[in-house]
Here is the input.
Amino acid sequence: MNITRPFGDTLALIGNTPLVRLAGPSAAAGCDIWGKCEFANPGSSVKDRAALWMIRDAEQRGELKPGGTVIEGTAGNTGIGIALVANALGYKTIIVMPDNQSKEKMDTLRALGAQLVLVPPTKYSDPGHFQHVSRRMAEETPGAVWAGQFDNVANRKAHIEGTSQEIWEQTEGRVDGFTCAAGTGGTIAGVGMGLKEKNPEIRIALTDPHGAALYNYYAKGELLAEGSSVAEGIGQGRITANLEGAPIDTQYRISDEEGLVWVERLLREEGLCLGLSSGINVAGAVALGRELVAEGRANPQVVTILCDTGFRYLSTLYNPEWLASKGLPVFDWLKQGEAA
Ligand code: PMP
Here is the structure.
């Protein structure tokens, strides 16, 4: 058993997350599927990494000064990461968020001390989109910086220099494939770039939810969205700066229903409570594992990202009424809970 050495400060708790073999997905794929436990970060999501790197980058560029304010437009997890890192470094946080995100995320942001600005969800071309509102607020607020996670490549740098190196070491260089979905694209692009630098044969697959445009972009060169998804934090309609040059070899499109199967199975069979983007990622990892097995690779090792904790979605993914209202299947044991 590896004992983690003590850390000298709380920010050092970000990253260095465990990698765990997932039994059900491995059996389904016929090879080893590994999950990177990003819910183990202090803010319970992968976005703590981007938050730390963007804030450190703003400090190094001299834009963020002592007592300053970090402003960001976010679906929630990046805001949670920013609020924690900003608290640790003495900055204030203002978060602009679409008002259709989970109540848990809003309550969490307020509890962490962030000032929360809710805006109606709208298309990116609308000046009222949360990203544009947050950018304008940063321009108008003295001492403020805009994190700008979508086009700020300090985001993917967190994964080039952090996540991908950890995956390489944790698999002792025996990784054949990596896949995850894209929100900003920082994770898929950064891990992809970092792993390709180690070994260009590692297959990098984008797992896209319905309602996003990237599957068609990588398959046919056309940014075209079809369908819809209730997954929070993923689903992108444009090539962000973080996605530019991402080494994507192949792509899968995964429905919410397919992702929910793994959310339920990982909880019931393996004791992991995750959000829907993790379930979608695992479904993609099973598809990638099967593809590598079919090509005759001997016991390929596939890694994906377990992006955030399911505790953030108790009022949605784990709520029978909410699932039914979205026309999504209700987990068996939630139905039993109702009857008991
Ligand atoms: N899953 C969740 C729950 C997220 O909040 C995010 C971040 N938006 C992602 C996945 C995607 O990560 P990235 O922004 O690095 O593409």
Summary: The first strand starts at residue 19 and ends at 21. The two ends are 41 Å apart (CA to CA). The mean pLDDT is 95.
